[in-house]
Amino acid sequence: MEPNLPCGRTSALGVMLLSALVLAGCAAPKNPAQRAPVVDRAPVPASTAASTPLPPGAENAGKPGYYTVRPGDTLIRIGLETGQNWRDIQAWNGIVNPNVIEVGQVLRVVPPEPVVAAAPPAAAAVQGTAAQPVASPSAQGRPLTESSSATTTAAASPAPAASPTPPASEEIRFIWPANGPVIDPFDEARNKGVGIGGRPGDPVVAAADGRVVYAGAGLRGYGNLIILKHNNTYLTAYAHNQALLVREDQTVRQGQKIAEMGSSDTDRVKLHFEVRRQGKPVDPLNHLPRR
């Protein structure tokens, strides 16, 4: 039989039990299944990812007067292929280090068009009167000055567009660069010139007047090489020499000795001779006098 407890003590005991239950509930461990929410972050769209930068000059790819760099190209080779001085190509494209070009880069291989200065604005009309044409100095009895004549000519006759066909004046009468026999015939696909036989030290002469645009051994497969530029249409190349007797930017005359025959970067003594017409190799025998 339970003991009889006073009413006050019963209430106090109930409060104590209720408080104990509340404290026990607060101290109970959290449900391990209740974790922090995970934010589902979608992957970054491909359109927002950083794109690979295009090679320099890519916007000019395919345009006339531009060349896209291919594997193995150098400025020297590009100059030979396009009929230009490799130093000019370097300058036209602002290339600091000529040994650093990248595949896919697009280079200008024709001279930039000259910037034509704008004509000076016409004199303002006098307020309240219409502008009147000014009589030419000759009409006023005064001789034309150099400046006025130049301005009139420029305004009357704009510069003609460049002709796609080289003028007849660009054609050249070449001479043989060496005296030996032809031992390698021209083949545009495999042999872009002719091989002329000889002995070590035989003279190699300039086939026509021109300027040395390259003299060195920086073009693989050509050995000690000289390239002459004769005009805007023709280049000639002289390869496999044992000694070079001219330097870049030097002017040479037709028949001048420019090298000595050798076997650099080839298996026998010979002169590899090329004629390039606007950069395209043509058969030298069609441009040399018959023997």
From TrEMBL:
Residues 65-109 form the LysM domain. GO terms for cellular component: cell division site; cell outer membrane. Gene3D superfamilies: Glucose Permease (Domain IIA) (2.70.70.10), LysM domain (3.10.350.10). InterPro entries: Cell_wall_metabolism_enzyme, Dup_hybrid_motif, LysM, LysM_dom_sf, M23ase_b-sheet_dom. Residues 42-52, 145-160 have a biased composition (Low complexity). Residues 1-24 form the signal peptide. It holds the Pfam family LysM. The keyword Signal applies. Residues 34-65, 133-168 are annotated as: Disordered. Keywords: Lipoprotein, Signal. One of its GO terms (molecular function) is metalloendopeptidase activity. Belongs to the E.coli NlpD/Haemophilus LppB family. This is Lipoprotein NlpD. The lineage of its organism: Bacteria, Pseudomonadati, Pseudomonadota, Betaproteobacteria, Burkholderiales.
